Automatic annotation (TrEMBL):
<dbReference type="InterPro" id="IPR000415">
    <property type="entry name" value="Nitroreductase-like"/>
</dbReference>
<protein>
    <recommendedName>
        <fullName>Nitroreductase family protein</fullName>
    </recommendedName>
</protein>
<dbReference type="GO" id="GO:0016491">
    <property type="term" value="F:oxidoreductase activity"/>
</dbReference>
């Protein structure tokens, strides 16, 4: 979302006097939100149970923060299933992003389990409903920077500092992302980033022109901290660098400031300030490989977090069917499906997003 300035507020038809009339007592406060973030985003304590491993899994990246997962617990195993009631059928009609999200959650759980002395054996079921079976067994504890980064990983949707990332850091990111059946392409040359930006702008323009896409996006935005805490999901305004506003104002503002020109200009500044862009490509276009892409990306994102490198999604070129083939051709993989487009660079952290209670995702 574009940043809401004072000019934006007034342009939306809300005068300074009208805003003042709302009263400071009604303007959202962040205190309760921060407390909930601190409660959720912490490392494991001593001798954690499976529910605690699920909590760590739910801190994974996922589209629109819909948290489209369910967890079934047994004595020494966890099964991760898709929650199709939380699918985003406009931006993700074939549930590609949903299964990528499941892969991200699985990777967090595997890393957290290893840190507590539990080895994980993963099997991806490909029956009527793809699911991830994780069998746990005793092993030596293996804590490390990826585990310690889990509570701090975020999608940082802001302008970065424009500085390059060192060759050594790029090597660490590549190594972290290694996964059978997944290829990572890293682009750091400005000419390549400019070319990718053209695909981002084409995809973003098509999406903003689609009323169904805009409505689905708005449905998942949480304008106030109260609403964000109440639902425990969605795209909280502050997490995108936007000021928080009362819910009864938020929708009106969104319809005023969410325009194609504003969004395209935002993404230009995001790409221009990034150190590079990573593109993830699965060997096959099926849920099993989408899950593998999610596991690869989650490690990439955790390694970036450990290095003080931010990242955020620019998935428009892979989401818009009219843009995707040309983007694949430019990547040199005609006929294949690129899965994720991720920019990276350095910037201050933004507020962290929330998650639903563990009990809400258990079956």
């Amino acid at each position: 979302m574009a940043f809401m300035t004072r000019r934006t507020l007034i342009g939306a038809g809300l005068s300074v006097a009208a805003l003042g009339a709302v009263g400071y007592g009604l303007w959202p406060r962040m205190d309760g939100y921060r407390e909930e973030v601190e409660r959720q985003r912490r490392l494991l304590g001593n001798d954690p149970d499976l529910k605690e491993l699920v909590r760590m899994a739910t801190l994974a990246a996922n589209g629109h923060n819909t948290q489209p997962w369910k967890f079934r617990l047994a004595e020494d195993s966890v099964t991760i299933l898709p929650d199709l009631t939380r699918r985003t059928e406009i931006v993700d009609p074939d549930d590609h992003h949903l299964f990528v999200s499941l892969g991200c959650a699985a990777e967090n759980l595997v890393i957290a389990a290893a840190a507590q002395g539990r080895a994980a054996d993963i099997a991806i079921g490909t029956g009527a409903e793809a699911q991830i079976e994780i069998a746990l067994s005793p092993s030596a504890a293996a804590q490390g920077p990826l585990y310690e980064a889990i509570p701090f990983r975020q999608s940082t949707r802001s302008v970065y500092d424009g500085q390059s990332v060192s060759t050594e850091d790029l090597r660490l990111l590549e190594n972290a992302a290694r996964e059978d059946g997944v290829n990572l392409m890293l682009f750091t040359e400005r000419s390549d980033l400019d070319a990718i930006l053209d695909f981002v702008i084409a995809g973003n323009s098509a999406q903003v022109d689609d009323p169904a896409f805009v409505q689905e996006l708005e449905d998942w935005i949480r304008f106030s901290p109260f609403r964000a805490v109440e639902t425990g999901d969605g795209l909280f305004a502050a997490c995108s660098g936007n000021p928080v506003v009362p819910d009864f104002i938020g929708s009106r503002l969104f319809r005023s400031f969410f325009t194609k020109d504003a969004e395209n200009e935002k993404y230009r500044s995001h790409v221009d300030s990034s150190a590079g862009i990573a593109v993830f490509v699965g060997d096959r276009d099926d849920p099993a490989h989408w899950i593998r892409v999610g596991r690869s990306f989650e490690r990439f994102s955790l390694q970036a977090t450990a290095l003080g490198i931010r990242n955020a999604h620019l998935n428009m070129p892979v989401e818009v069917l009219s843009v995707r083939p040309a983007f694949a051709d430019w990547l040199g993989i005609p006929g294949a499906r690129p899965n994720l487009v991720i920019r990276f660079g350095r910037a201050p952290a933004l507020p962290m997003s929330l998650r639903r209670p563990v009990e809400a995702v258990l079956v």
